[in-house]
Amino acid sequence: MHINSSMSVKKKQQNDYAKTLYTTEHLTQKELAERVNVTEKTISRWIEKGGWKKLRKSMLVTKQHQISQLYDQLAYLTEIIATRDYKIADSKEADVLSKITSAIQKLEVETSIGQIVEVARDFVDFVREIDLDEAKAITALFDSFIQSKMK
Description:
Layout: H1 2-24, H2 29-36, H3 40-50, H4 52-83, H5 91-130, H6 132-149
């Protein structure tokens, strides 16, 4: 039972990493499969089931905008609470504040992983021009580093 649990956690991590790579880099399914250590068929299934193509199109353009809107909503609700005599959120407001804060945190974490991937890609491209073997080694290290950040 423990083995299946740890295997499913590993698959989830691989899926998350593949999704990040897919939405931030223009890799082939074969390249993704090699980087994440799964089959091309698995990558294809994840892309289809997860709606990654649509996500790829919308993610980079709208993520900062979404974060900005969520911060605006948070500020608006906080201002409303601050103008009342009783300056404590009621249960509905507390729930909304919690959900907005959680959404902001999730988007910011995804953004930071995306930024790590982008910097890694740029650095590996730089090193590739100097030493292809070293670039391959650095890519493997960056993959491990990024996977560790997604835990």
